[in-house]
Amino acid sequence: MRLQCEVEVLSRLLPTCGLRGRGRAARALLSLGRAPGAAGAGIYLMVCTARDRGGARYKVQQNVERLFTRFVEEGKATVRLREPAANVINLKTFLSAVRLAHQGNDTGVLPLSPLVPAKNSDVEKPKTKMIITSRRDYPLAKSFPLSLEHLQTSYCKLARIDSRVLCLKKLRKLDLSHNHIKQLPATLGDLACLQELDLHDNHLEAFSGALCSSGLQKSLQLLDLSQNQIQALPMEFCQLRGLVQLRLDDNALQRLPCRIGQLSRLRFLSAARNKLPFLPSDFRRLSLENLDLFGNPFEQPNPLVPNIQLKIPLTLLECAARATVNHGIPYGCHLLPFHLCKDLEVAKTCRCGSACLSSFIQITLTMNLHHVAHTVVLVDNMGGTEAPVLCYFCSLHCYSQFLDRHLQSSGRQGPGSA
User: Fold this and answer.
1) Would you indicate the residue range of the signal peptide (predicted)?
2) 111 prior amide bond cis, ω within 30
3) Terminus-to-terminus CA distance in the chain, angstroms?
4) Which residues touch 176 (CB under 8 Å, ≥6 apart)?
């Protein structure tokens, strides 16, 4: 039996001599077994470190004074030996095997290991960070260490994500910036610990909806998709509820997700230099610390020129859809056709709070971006901090009420404000 862990060996005789141990743990390989060529010999515990790969051996049978296992759930334990008077700390597992070896019971069934010197890989601390910034340094023949938590492979001219990267289940930060990646595999969503994903300066044309429905929706906190060729984000994008920072600069985005307000944890949003004519109605629900929408071709809003999609009388489908959303009636693909479920998920909301599906009146209003963000980058070279936002009405009555209030507040016809 072998175990890679952090080990500290302390002599209990030091305090009697007025001395103190160093108290510093070292990466080590613990082995529980018999000496080579000694079938009938006793069982030993061997500790191999980078400085002493040959290892120090400690007799186990009838030599364990006590096992301290109070903190074993935290991966910590202590073995106190009678001779020599030493404590081996931080064993983490295989305490039951040590106990059996001490008692001398059933030693034939113990998973013992040969007590041979350790290899370098056994006593080296697992590698958690790797940065590769050139194609010539990219590993082709050997795999990535499975212990990696931070991996950067930039300027490597990668056309796709290496399948070996998708096996790194401990990854928390993945930087694939400055490559030629065109498509993201759905298995990227299997990296359940991934918190930061940097894909800026690639050739992406889309962000898969499957990724938004994967384990990333809970773990992902930072997503950088800037300097790509993305025209639209999927409807499922707003399932990434853990996002705190989102960068979408320098793409070809023509719209933001209609349910972007569901990203309740989002604090930093940048979508500069895209092709956004207006912002979605749900944008008002955001609560940001920093917002950058500079360089978008925002339209001039005019609430007096509505886009009327209202059908009177309302169709039975529209009435049923509104009732389903307004009353919170459960639905799913086992009850309704798939396309109806999708339509209900993107139902529009009138200013009165009622839902509308395909029958509505749409206008654009001017919104001061300081209403949703503490710090706002100017949207143009004129020093503006306002942008047009969509607004929906479920009926002529709701639109008429808004129009009356708008004309009374402005005193003239012209652009409105949200």
Assistant:
1) none
2) no
3) 69
4) 153, 154, 158, 161, 197, 198, 199, 202
Peptide bond preceding 306 in cis form (omega within 30 of 0): no
Report the relative pairing of strands 288-292 and 355-356 from DSSP bridges: unpaired
Q: Say which residues have a Cβ less than 8 Å from residue 326's Cβ, sequence separation at least 6.
A: 354, 355
The token pair at 31 is: 């082995």
Reading the block at residue 323, the tokens are 């009732």
pLDDT digits (tens, 9 = 90+) for 323-340: 999 999 999 889 999 999
d(CA 210, CA 208): 5
Backbone angles phi, psi at 107, to 5 degrees: -70, -20
Q: Which residue has tokens 């654009």? A: 364
- Cα(126)–Cα(4) distance, integer angstroms: 10
At how many degrees (to 10) do helices 338-345 and 316-326 cross? 60
Give one DSSP letter per residue of 89-105, joined into a string: E---S-HHHHHHHHHT-
Look at residues 415, 407, 417, 403 and name the one whose alpha carbon lies nearest to residue 369.
417
Which residues in the chain come in under a pLDDT of 50?
18-19, 90-93, 413-415
Burial zone of 220 (CB within 10 Å; 0-12 exposed, 13-18 middle, 19+ buried)? buried
Integer Cα distance of 7 and 123 in angstroms: 11
Specify whether the CB–CB gap between 319 and 394 falls below 8 A.
Answer: no
Query: Rounded CA gap, 56 and 30, in Å?
Result: 10
Cα→Cα distances 184→43, 242, 260, Å: 52, 20, 22
Show the domains of the chain with their CATH numbers. Answer: 2-123 (2.30.29.180), 129-275 (3.80.10.10), 307-371+385-410 (no CATH)
Reading phi first (left if > 0) and then psi (alpha if -120 to 50, else beta), residue 243 is in beta
SS3 333: coil
Distance CA 18, CA 338 (A): 77
CA distances from 305 to 357, 361, 396, 413, 417 (A): 21, 10, 14, 11, 14
Place of tokens 């509820």: 241
Query: What is the predicted pLDDT for the residue at 355?
Result: 94
pLDDT at 183: 95
408 phi and psi angles, rounded to 5 deg: -70, -40
